[in-house]
Amino acid sequence: MSSDSSDNTANNTRDISVLQLLTKLVKETDRLVRLADDIDTHASTPQAKAAFNLIGGEVSNILSIMKSSLDPLYRLYDLDPGMKNLDRNRRNSTIKEFTIATDPDDSYDEQTLWNDIKAKD
Question: With a threshold of 0.70, does the pTM exceed it?
Answer without folding.
Answer: no
